[in-house]
Amino acid sequence: LLSVCRSCLVKYLEENNTCPTCRIVIHQSHPLQYIGHDRTMQDIVYKLVPGLQEAEMKKQREFYHKLGMEVPGDVKGETCSTKQHLDSHRNGEMKTDENSNKETSEEKQEEDNDYHRSDEQVSICLECNSSKLRGLKRKWIRCSAQATVLHLKKFIAKKLNLSSFNELDILCNEEILGKDHTLKFVVVTRWRFKKAPLLLHYRPKMDLL
């Protein structure tokens, strides 16, 4: 697997169907559907370039505000917290450094325990299309758009008491999904003009010779 700048890669794949580095064919007709987000590399870039992540988040907020849409994430809570902080200063309620540090520590702990609830969410319906597996009792779920197909495989395997999540295939529109595809990517590339929830099917893994 190779890591490439996403915007550069998308522009390149508009006219090509091969990897820009090794020239291996990604897909004959739909190469854009077979690229994934390298989060490890993204984290490294953010650490190497000071202020890049903050700048991108600022641009994202400006983009959504310009369209009159709510920014994905817990923006309301952030705005409310900022407003309370300003109000306390206006009313002359100056807090000591000790109390301020304590509140900051508590807020950070709450953020760490967020479990991606503040992420953009995706509604999913998981249907079984094989007589060899049973259906889920609760097939309707809602989770982070950053979750991957691999996360869904592990979830289904745990619910069905399977020995390994590698025994499963997950499909959308009768097409097997790659384990590294995020749900956001699946929605944009395969469910863009359809109504929620995103309908996915699971079945025992088939070995294609």
TrEMBL record:
PANTHER family: POLYCOMB GROUP RING FINGER PROTEIN. Residues 84-107 have a biased composition (Basic and acidic residues). GO terms for molecular function: zinc ion binding. One of its GO terms (cellular component) is PcG protein complex. This is Polycomb group RING finger protein 3. Keywords: Metal-binding, Nucleus, Repressor, Transcription, Transcription regulation, Zinc, Zinc-finger. Its main location: nucleus. Pfam families: RAWUL. The keyword Transmembrane helix does not apply. The keyword Zinc-finger applies. Residues 139-203 form the RAWUL domain. Residues 75-116 are annotated as: Disordered. It comes from Antrostomus carolinensis (Chuck-will's-widow). It is found in: Nucleus.
